[in-house]
Amino acid sequence: MEKMTASRAKQNFGEHLDAFAQGPVAIERHKSIQAIICSPEIFHRTAGDIACPNQALEERRVARTEQQLVEKNRLIKHQKLAIDLLLMPQDKREELVMRARAEVLRWRQDRLCSADYADRWDELLGFSIGDLAQPCARRRMSGAPLCGKTRLGM
């Protein structure tokens, strides 16, 4: 980064505009950097969040809203799965539960989730179909989230 004294920058400001456009220039006073001058493009690229705190806040709001939508879609998938479990023929139910158990085993082997999470799924998959469908249809069971990323027929 180029450096110049505050007096030099002040006296020849117009002549230094090209240097400011090329990259940040540190302005020193009493051998201490007091300011950094750069082009608007460089500023927005490197310090846009500082210049636009509302933009960062808006981005967080959008991310939060998108996550809520993901959660809502997951709940809808679970509710559809619960209905399917209750309405499908017995052999299809057993096949679906068997595939789910294989998926939980893969999670364990590949360490894709915590042991507690996999244990919870093993517990759920041990329920009767009617009992299994109920927590799938609800958002939460026993105060803990039912499931996150699943491939149980969804």
- Enumerate the spans where pLDDT stays under 50 for 5 or more consecutive residues: 140-154
Oligomer: single chain
Structural class given helices, strands, pairing?
alpha+beta
What is the 3D form?
A: rod-shaped
The arrangement of helices and strands along the chain is EHHEEHHHHHEE
- Estimated share of beta-strand residues: 5-15%
Key traits:
154 residues; alpha+beta; 3-stranded mixed sheet; two-stranded antiparallel ribbon; 7 helices; 5 strands; 67% helix; disordered C terminus
Structure description:
The longest helix is centred in the middle third of the chain and has 35 residues, at 53-87. Helices cover 67% and strands 12% of the residues. β2 (25-29) and β3 form a beta hairpin. The protein has a 3-stranded mixed sheet with strand order 1-2-3. Strands 4-5 form a two-stranded antiparallel sheet. With 154 residues, the chain is α+β, with helices and mostly antiparallel strands.
Write the SSE topology.
Elements: E1 2-5, H1 6-11, H2 13-22, E2 25-29, E3 32-37, H3 40-51, H4 53-87, H5 90-109, H6 115-125, H7 129-137, E4 140-141, E5 144-145
What's a concise summary of this model?
The chain has 154 residues and is α+β, with helices and mostly antiparallel strands. It is 67% helix and 12% strand.
